[in-house]
Amino acid sequence: MTGVTDVLVVAPHPDDDVIGCGGSIAKHVRDGARVTVVIVIGRERSALDDAVTDAEFAAETEAAAKALGVHRCIRFDEPSRDFTLSRRVHLNLVRVLREVRPQVVYLPHDNDDDVEHRMVHQLTTEALWMAQSEFFQEAGDRPMPAPRLVLGYEVWAPMARFQYAEDIDGQIGTKVEAMRAYVSQLRHAAWDEAIRGLARYRSAVSTGTGHAEVFQVLGLRTPPPAGGPGGVRD
């Protein structure tokens, strides 16, 4: 993770980024990287939080991003349960990818239980290919270089197998603080305690530290040596 300056996190819904990789986000920020979060799908109201206005819910999202140190949070506000993988939404994400030009990309893993999580996984993998191609000039005419690392995170369905673990013991407090910014969501379930417990379990079976996040490795590229062939930064 050395030398990472820009990170992109693609989240299906508000708070998925916090649950899936909030500790890693805070760690990137600590190390000086700019983190951009794209939230694809808008709020889904429930009987438990119907009294919360859209403005209040947006403020929760902003507070969570601020707690993690996110540089920019972009909301596509696609409709929940009517979300489709259209050319428009693909190009919207391609446009962000070409602008941010991230070295590390986070997205939901490919077998999460929520159908919209799987759709956003597909959206992101396709948009990554599109953003690196010479086509789709309407989303920016400068193709992005391949990210060094593309990682799938877990939200609804913990992964049966993972290839990468990140020690977040120093960031678990920040991750829990960000989750607690979503006051409306804590009325559904004790997500703040759930993410702490999962991080403790993941550390026990991976890093051996106090808390960890685990990921599916979806893409890995070794960066060229500084000053060598192709070593000039894009």
TrEMBL record:
Coiled-coil ranges per UniProt: none
A Pfam short name: PIG-L
Keywords tagged on the record: Zinc
Domain of life: Bacteria
Protein name per UniProt: PIG-L deacetylase family protein
Species of origin: Streptomyces lavendulocolor
